[in-house]
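Appendix B. Raw example, untouched.
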Amino acid sequence: MPIRNLDKIFAPHSVAVIGASKRPASVGNTVLLNLVDGGFTGSVYAVNSKYQEIGGVACFGAVGEIPDPVDLAVVCTPAVTVPDIVRQCGEAGIRGVVILSAGFREASEEGAKLEAEILAAAKHFDGMRIVGPNCLGIMAPHQSLNASFASDSPQKGRVAFISQSGALCTAVLDWAIQENVGFSNFVSVGNMLDVGIADLIDYFATDGYTESIILYMESISKGREFMSAARAFAREKPIIAYKAGRFAQSAKAAASHTGAMAGVDSVYEAAMARAGIVRVFDVDDLFDCAELLARQKTPSGPRLAIITNAGGPGVMATDALLDRHGVLADLSETTIAKLNEKLPASWSHGNPVDVIGDAPPERFSAAAEIVLADEGVDGVLVVLSPQAMTDPTGAANAVIEVAKRSHKPLIAAWMGGGKVRQGIELLNDAGIPTYSSPEKAIRAFMHLVSYARNRETLYETPREVPIEFSLDRKKLRDVFDTVFNEGQDVLSESASKTLLEAYEIPVTKTSVARSAEDAVQCATAVGYPVALKIFSPDITHKTDVGGVELNLANSDAVAGAFNRILSRAKQHRPTARLEGVTVQHMLVAPNGRELIIGAKRDPVFGTVLMVGAGGTNAELFRDLSLELPPLSERLARRMLESLQAWPLLQGYRGRPGVNLDRLVEVLMRLSYLVADYPEIVELDVNPLLVTPDDVIALDARIVLDRQTILHPVRPYSHLAIRPYPNEFAKIVKLKDGTSVLLRPIKPEDEPMWHDLVASCSSESLHLRFRYMFKATTHAMATRFCFIDYDREIAIVAETQVDGERRLIGVGRLVADVDHRDAEYAVLVSDPWQGKGLGSFLTDHCLEICHQWGIRSVIAEMAMQNDRMIRMFDHRGFEIDRRHAFDAVVARKKLAVQKK
């Protein structure tokens, strides 16, 4: 569904330039000329009380004087005038506004007040959308629209460019014109008073001209909206992002190992990976990726074949590929045989395919065509180094002809200067991305491979790992509230472990000793050897103050250690509250590994999870992985796989591997804990002992957010990704007495979803999907099973059939991003039709609509679907039988409730 009124900005029928001017090189003059000279076919009006006309364009004293409707207003006046101008635009019925003016919050506190006045004025006019202020403007080349003060307009293309830097926009434009790279849309977002990056991603997802997005960002203010939009877009098309400010320091000093290790940039890194975004670290990479995205299809995998006329560049390309974890494609025996027929006997007989320095254009062509046909090849890089007998221009033409016939990406590296210039121009004109070196070409290719991998993660069906909590969560909340309300912002090790244990995360039992005698008694009770640790609410890193002693084997050792620990702690931290020590049994695990797991609250993306190599050296080695909750089994496993310590966890040189399934389960349980309790702002488990048999938390520390305890927030508002909505599950009884669980769908349901569709007749499938298909595929299933619970809900009906779980129906509700309107569809398995299941699914989905604040629901069905038409009619839907394409449309307006 389209984003409200952004069409008024990017596809307007009429534009008014407020602050238009005759003064050369002024913003108002430049914008007006760009609109007129750029070929915009709609109406253009100038607004300035000083003139009657500007360059042949009619000029009015105010927007309210323009006699015709205006879709878009481009504001170029001083900042102090803008709030009143926005009000005038609203009164004139203008719903699209681009504010180029500077002098707002980026300049001063007074400017920030002006922004507040603009927002207050815009709120009076439902649906008004604002880009800016303090921006370069917007361009929509396919609409011949240049509503900016940039000096040049880009060509038409398939890449949307979104930037938080106006200066970078001008640099990108200059580069794009030189390289003949086009754009579908070009946006400088400025201060993002209203329209933000998430809005634009959502809008460009519906734009038929946009096949990919290039994003330059400095900061994100609405992490959840950004993640939702980016994940939805990246499922189908790539997003390449450059994030500036990699080394910005956190606004608040870290209070734990997790906080110290999970810095600001590393959280952005984790968020972008989870959203399926490919991140680049060099602006040159951004340009290279833009070229590749604009010209080539995404590779289906990392297997690259390299064709070269010189051994050295082939080795350079191979090194770059392997260094970036790409795969040098293994050429099949058939491919090798065909190459033997076409190439000299001295060719390399493998990948890279060295066609020899005297290769004429025909040899490049033959090699490229043969290699592209290999099923084990996902893409091809052709490298040309100019030698005495080389024809760079002829080779370019030959490669172009081959590329036209291939569905796989083909990229080129034409090395050299003047001799290869014409060939490079031909390749660029033909849409083949061309680079000056093999390394640059490999780098760009691997960014696209990274996107393909990220998208695979978005679509990967996790295996079912049932983690059932037998604990009553309402009762559990009462217990947690008791702990939270004790008044301590930092929970003791014992209290922290109590919360972990409640979520069935194994912990070592910890006793608190206030004296040396208490410590000896505790040690005797738990059994030697024992570990002693300082017990203080003011000390985060116990080892830093000499507050830990291990492997204490008898009472004398314990008594001595007690005194030494308190003495050292007092010396290092004289103002700290020292309340004694904790005592716990030392676990002897020769094949165990120490990890650290934890969570921290990020100001943008909410709670973030971390796992890494643990112990006292955790922060030194920084072998860690971050992820956003909630975790699935596959996401938890991927976190572990990304660690340098992963080979050690699997087992190394005769040492057994750890219990990975148990470790994955503990990570998932931790994600449930921090998702359920927004009061937890930081959590550390260090070390987490992982053995071949079990996983045990040896130490734990939880930091609370006192404000969240005093002022509770909406459930899951502290997360960037909406967890599985258990609250929408309910049990119903069908007419025949069958008990059915109605619940939201989840990725693990894919196998049962395939079975559900297979159980439906061709007629039922046609009535639901309104087209015929032979069989379901994984790609089809991902569209229905992998959903963003902030945007849509699929309620499945699950029951037991012959002792096995089965899905027997599904109702699907898809809302627009503003949660104003929703589309609904329902499918019931043939054997279960006529038992009231469709009605139960529909009523449940309508209840969800009320909770979401949906204003209207629409359902489309085939004219022959009498049963569904009667069901909707019975529920007060307006039935429209006049709809085109042999369909009936049912609509219903709902009473709006607070969410």
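End of appendix B.
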